[in-house]
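We now fix the convention by which a protein and its fold are recorded. The integers have meaning only within a learned vocabulary of local backbone shapes. A complete example follows; check for yourself that the lines match position by position.
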Amino acid sequence: MILIIFIVVALAIVTFSLSLTTRKKKKRIITGIVLLLSVLTYPLTLPLLHETKVIHGLEGTASLIVFHLLILLGGMIVIIAGIFTKTEPNESIE
């Protein structure tokens, strides 16, 4: 059950990061880098979630690993999309 919740949350984070940065190349690349760096929080979240009894045993640990791998993959996709994103044309007011 916790695996499904983690997958839904990871997909929601990646979807929002893509949809909220449409046509904004610089913001999309920065968001992708933040998503890539968020994987580094794994050593902090694992003991925290074990201590609060949110995840139990190997199933919970594997679920957290899948969550962080989805975030990592999403960060790579956002950076690649940011590289190929065209910026909005500046409209001159006449």
